[in-house]
Amino acid sequence: MTRRRYSARERTALWDQCCSEQEFPICNICGLFVFPGQAWDVSHDPQNAPAALGGDAVGIAHRRCNRRHGAVVVTPLVAKIKRIRAKHIGAHECERGRRAMPCGRASPWRKKLSGEVVMRMAPSECRPSAFPKGGIR
Ligand SMILES: [Zn+2]
Predict the structure, then answer these.
(1) Residue 125 to residues 106, 121, 130, 134, 136: CA-CA distances in angstroms?
(2) Could you tell me the pLDDT band of residue 29, with boundaries at 50, 70 and 90?
(3) Whole-structure pTM over 0.70, yes or no?
(4) How many A from CA of 54 to the centre of ligand 1?
(5) 75-128 residue pLDDT tens
(6) For residue 34, how far is its CA from the centre of ligand 1 (angstroms)?
(7) Structural domain tally of the chain?
(8) Residue 102 C-alpha to ligand 1 middle, in angstroms?
(9) Could you list the residue range(s) of the whole structural domain that residue 30 is in?
C-alpha cells in the first residue's frame, strides 16, 4: 500500500478545517499548537485506526510527533496485526516445511515411547473406524 499524498489545496483545506475556532491548528498527537513555519504532516487520528488498517480520520500533527508516533506505535502495531492474521488464516508456516521439529507434530516421522522412529501414517491410511462419523465426543 502506498502512502496517500495530499495536494497543497487539500493540505490548506485541512489546515483551515483544523483551526476552526482557534488561530492555529492543534497537533493531534502532542496537543500543542502547530504554528506556520513548523513542519507538519497530515496525521491519522491516534484514537482511531491507522491508514494501513483502513482508517480515514485525519488531522494535523507536527512532523516530528507524527514520525515518532508512526515508528513507535503504528508500525509495530500493524506488523503484529499482520502476523496474527497470517497465523489465524494458516498462511504462516511455523510448524511445517523445513523448520518442522524432528518427529514433531508436523513431521512425517514420529518417535514411539520405545525410541523407535517410524513413518507417521497419512490420514488416508488410517482405519476408518478410528474416526467415527458422528465425531469424537
Ligand atoms: Zn506535536
Answers:
(1) 17, 6, 11, 20, 19
(2) very high
(3) no
(4) 23
(5) 999 999 999 999 899 887 665 556 678 888 777 888 999 999 988 877 666 666
(6) 7
(7) 2
(8) 52
(9) 8-88
